[in-house]
Amino acid sequence: MILPTGSKGRTLALALALLCVCAVVAAIAWPAYVLHQRYDRVSAAAEEKIERYQKLAAHKPEHQRALDVLKAREGARFYLKNVIPTAAGAELTDLVRPMIESNGARLTSIQPATVREDSGYRVYSLNIGFNGTPANVQKTLYAIETALPYLFIENLTLRATVPRGFKPQPNQEPEVSAQLEVQAYGAKVVPRTPSQGAGSTASTPVKS
């Protein structure tokens, strides 16, 4: 490339020199700017994490007291002990059957327990039927509702076993037929003991 002579040539040469200098500066400054921005973001994220961890560490005594309260409640006692579905179903059956028999009712039907998933836990359902006097049925339902681990009554149906207008003998109450579904919660894994970790307590289901 041949530059023109005179002042015009000198001006063009100066412009080309400035352009080259700007190109070199841009080639150095732009990567430095990009790296600077990237490191600023990484540094800001690290500082935010440190600040968040410091806040959590400051509340450690409160969290520890809350964990101690949960441990003292022994939340695992509100669930079925077995985590294997078949064993937990048998455990539920063994819990309900004596409640019926010990309260004067008579077991008429029982089906194998079924299981389904619900919010990280297993819900076991047992369909049973039994007969008894109104007083015995009431005592049986009360025993189920106040048992440990927690048992829940669903879909309760009560039917009379005598025709309408039946007059019982003195001091004899006619039986009532009860058909219901009993539910219980169980863990999906073996609950951790306090020695296995600080946050090892099981949560307690709220009984309605």
How would you summarize the topology of this molecule?
Blueprint: H1 7-58, H2 60-73, H3 85-102, E1 106-110, E2 114-118, E3 121-132, H4 134-145, E4 151-160, E5 176-186
Antiparallel strand pairs: 1-3, 2-3, 3-5, 4-5
Helix pairs in contact: 3-4
Produce a short descriptive summary.
The protein has helices spanning 7-58, 60-73, 85-102, 134-145; strands at 106-110, 114-118, 121-132, 151-160, 176-186. It is α+β, with helices and mostly antiparallel strands.
Describe the structure.
Strands 1, 2, 3, 4 and 5 form a 5-stranded antiparallel β-sheet that branches. Among the domains are: 38 residues; 98 residues, Ribosomal protein S6/Translation elongation factor EF1B (Alpha-Beta Plaits, 2-Layer Sandwich). It has 4 helices and 5 strands, in the order H-H-H-E-E-E-H-E-E. The chain starts with 6 loop residues before the first helix and ends in a 22-residue tail after the last strand. With 208 residues, the chain is α+β, with helices and mostly antiparallel strands. Strand 2 and strand 3 form a beta hairpin. Helix 3 runs antiparallel to helix 4.
Descriptive labels:
single chain; 208 residues; alpha+beta; Alpha-Beta Plaits; 5-stranded antiparallel sheet; 4 helices; 5 strands; 46% helix; disordered C terminus
N-to-C order of helices and strands: HHHEEEHEE
Shape label:
rod-shaped
**Which consecutive residue ranges, at least 5 long each, have pLDDT under 50?**
194-208
CATH C-level class of the domain at 77-161 and 174-186 is Alpha Beta
Strand content: 15-25%
**Alpha plus pi helix count:** 4
CATH third-tier fold name of the domain at 77-161 and 174-186:
Alpha-Beta Plaits
Helix content: 40-55%
Major β-sheet annotation: 5 strands, antiparallel
Distance from N terminus to C terminus (CA atoms, Å) equals 92 Å
Nearest-integer average pLDDT: 82
The CATH architecture of the domain at 77-161 and 174-186 is 2-Layer Sandwich
- The CATH superfamily of the domain at 77-161 and 174-186 bears the name Ribosomal protein S6/Translation elongation factor EF1B
Counting DSSP E segments of at least 2 residues, the number of strands comes to 5
Provide the gyration radius in Å. 38 Å
Which structural class fits the helix and strand makeup? alpha+beta
